[in-house]
Design a protein that fits this description.
Blueprint (H helix, E strand, L loop, with lengths): L4 H4 L7 H19 L5 H16 L7 H47 L4 H16 L3 H24 L5 H25 L10 H13 L4 E8 L2 H8 L1 H17 L6 E4 L4 E7 L4 H12 L3 E7 L2 E7 L1 E7 L4 H15 L1
Length: 333
């Protein structure tokens, strides 16, 4: 709990500038403490960044430096709100798609009454405007009641054919998959928007069991720690995201790309050729020298981006492959 009392009734003999600094520090603490937690992986670093900025404000800090700190806090808050908004939008979009799919299924089956169809269409429209948790819980309850009515009507009209029930079951299974994908999307890496190391491990295990030739490409962005140290983690995340997007855009649509750890990005590839042929395919864009223009205070800075990379064939045992990945990553940092 943050108390305003010491700020409102402190020593009145103190200089007003000192009080202003204390009040600004209080606001920064409040921002970190009361921010909306949309994604756990975003929320922790956000609070840490704001706390670190708040620590820079002392009774002796020049007001010009205080303004720089406040500007930095606004940029951190803007980036945090943008990421949180994306999570909420993605969830609402997938939920709306789910209800739309169910509605079309009910209509195509033709065994449910007009009332059920109208209720589903009404729920579908309501999701567009739902923002609060209570709104989503109410919609979930309404959707459950509506689907229960659909199931009862399907049972009463069972003579219309088992294929009707099979169709509804298949669509419901697809809906569950969509819900799972929404939950997985909320756990995407905050910096790159890619699936994280846990999903990468699952993809590697699957590749191990595949009869097709699989390769693992790993790229480690250079000097990222130096960028973080000089300009802050927000700028470092932008640099990493720029390379990750470039790397992903030049791969096949069937290739799966993940944030591994630290400045490393990996991709699981399925190729029929030999290792040297795969390296020749990856080299032109993996070796490319990129640039990222960022705003640092009142300055515009252009940061060069490059990465060291290599490719490993996916072959058991998985422990040996993981050791190679970790050894390569550590060697580049």
């Amino acid at each position: 709990m943050i108390s305003l009392k010491p700020y409102l009734f402190g020593d009145k003999s103190k200089n007003a500038d000192v009080e202003y600094r204390r009040i600004i520090g209080l606001f920064l603490q409040g921002i970190a403490l009361h921010a909306v937690e949309g994604n756990e992986s975003d929320y922790g670093p956000f609070r840490t960044d704001i706390d670190e900025l708040a620590k820079q404000i002392t009774p002796d800090t020049p007001m010009s430096q205080v303004l720089v700190v406040v500007g930095g806090a606004l940029r951190v808050m803007e980036e945090f709100n943008r990421r949180t908004g994306k999570v909420i939008q993605r969830q609402n979009h997938e939920l709306q798609n789910m209800v739309s799919m169910l509605t079309q299924t009910v209509i195509s089956i033709g065994s449910s009454g007009e009332s059920s169809v109208n209720k589903l269409q009404d729920i579908e429209k309501s999701i567009e405007h739902a923002r609060a948790v209570d709104d989503m819980q109410l919609l979930k309850l309404r959707l459950g009641e509506c689907l229960e009515a659909v199931r009862e009507e399907a049972v009463r009209q069972k003579t219309d054919g088992q294929s009707t029930l099979d169709t509804l079951k298949k669509e419901l299974e697809t809906s569950r998959d969509r819900v799972r994908s929404v939950a997985a999307g909320a756990n995407l890496d905050a910096a790159t928007g890619l699936p994280g190391k846990k999903q990468a491990m699952q993809a590697i295990q699957t590749a191990m069991a595949s009869p097709h030739n699989k390769f693992l490409a790993i790229a480690v962005v250079g000097r990222l720690q130096a960028v973080n140290a000089r300009f802050g983690n927000v700028i470092g995340d932008q640099v990493l995201a720029t390379f990750a997007q470039h790397f992903k855009e030049h791969l096949l649509a069937s290739d799966r790309v993940f944030r591994w750890q630290g400045p490393a990005v990996i991709a699981v590839l399925e190729r029929e050729g030999r290792l040297d042929k795969v390296c020749a395919e990856i080299r032109p864009f993996a070796d490319a020298k990129l640039e990222k223009t960022v705003e640092v205070g009142a300055r515009t800075v252009m940061l060069p981006i490059s990465a060291n990379w290599t490719i490993f064939p996916v072959a058991p045992p998985v422990e040996e492959l993981l050791k190679k990945l970790d050894a390569f990553t550590a060697a580049q940092i």
